[in-house]
Amino acid sequence: MYFEAIGQMKKMLGQLDKWLEAAGTYAQTKNFDPNVIVGLRLAPDQFAFARQIQSCCDSAKFAAFRLAGKETPKQEDNEKTLDELRARVRSTIGLLDGFTAQDFAEAATRKVAQPRWEGKWMTGPDYFLEHAQPNFFFHLNHAYAILRHNGVNIGKRDYLGPLSLHNP
Amino acid sequence: MYFEAIGQMKKMLGQLDKWLEAAGTYAQTKNFDPNVIVGLRLAPDQFAFARQIQSCCDSAKFAAFRLAGKETPKQEDNEKTLDELRARVRSTIGLLDGFTAQDFAEAATRKVAQPRWEGKWMTGPDYFLEHAQPNFFFHLNHAYAILRHNGVNIGKRDYLGPLSLHNP
C-alpha cells in the first residue's frame, strides 16, 4: 500500500507540473512576468508559492526515502522561476520513480525520526498517515489554491488528472 | 489499510471542527456576523466555504460506505451557519465511527461506481487513491485556505493535530 500511496503522490506531482504550465500560459496571455507567481501567497504569514511547491515535493521525497529506510538526497530550495519550479517537481518525480514495492516491505515496522522531533520518533504508518500525507496534500492544495485565487485557468479535472475508469 | 485511511479522515475532520470553532471566535473578536464565513470563496468560480465543508464530509462518507459495500446515507446540504456546518462535520465523524476494520475486508476487490460515471466503474483501490482521498484533501484544504486567507487564527499545528510521537 505504501508503494501505491507514493504512486498517488507521483501522479499528483505530474498534475502540479501541468498547473505550473497553465500558470506560465496565463502570464503570457495577460502579459505579466510569469515569475511574479513564484512570490504569491494567500496570507502574509503563509508560505509563498515557491515554498509551497518545495514543501510539497519534500513531503513526497521524505515519505518515500524514510519509509524505505534510505538516506534522503538534499535539494537546495533555490528555485526563483516557474521553470525552475517545474524542474524541481520533475526531479522529485524522477526520485520517486526509483522505488519498487519491495523497497517498502519493512515500512510498517520502521521507526521514523526527524531533527525537529528532538529524538522522538513515529512508527512508519503513523508518520505516513498523520504527517507525510496530510502535509503533502496541504502544500499541493495551497499551490493550487494560490493559482486559482489569481485567475489561472485550471479546474477540478486538472487537479485529479485521469481516472482509471472501466467500461460497464 | 483502508480502515486506517478512514481513521485519518476522521482525525482531519476533528481538526476541521476546531478550525470552525476558531472561525467563530475570530468573528466574535472582530465583531462581524460569523455566518459571513459560510459564503466566502477564494475564486468566484470555486465552491463557497459551506460547500467545501459539505464536499469534504461527503468525500469521507462516500469513501467509507462505498469501500464497505454499504448504502450511503443521504444528507441535505442545507447548512447555512457555522454551527450547522460544525454539526455536519460531527455527524460525519459519527458515521465513520460506525466502521470496523472488518468492514473493509473486501475493499481491494470491490467495484465502485457513481451516477456521474454513467455506468463506468473503478476498482476500490483506484477509487480511493485517485478520487476519494485527493478530493477529501482538496476540500479540506480549501476550507482551511479560505479561513487563513480571511485572517482566522489557525496554523500548521491546527491542521495536522496531535502526532503519535514516542519518546527516545
From TrEMBL, chains A, B:
* InterPro entries reported for this sequence: DinB/YfiT-like, DUF1993
Pfam families per UniProt: DUF1993
Entry protein name: DUF1993 domain-containing protein
**Native species:** Labilithrix luteola
Classification from the root reads: Bacteria, Pseudomonadati, Myxococcota, Polyangia, Polyangiales
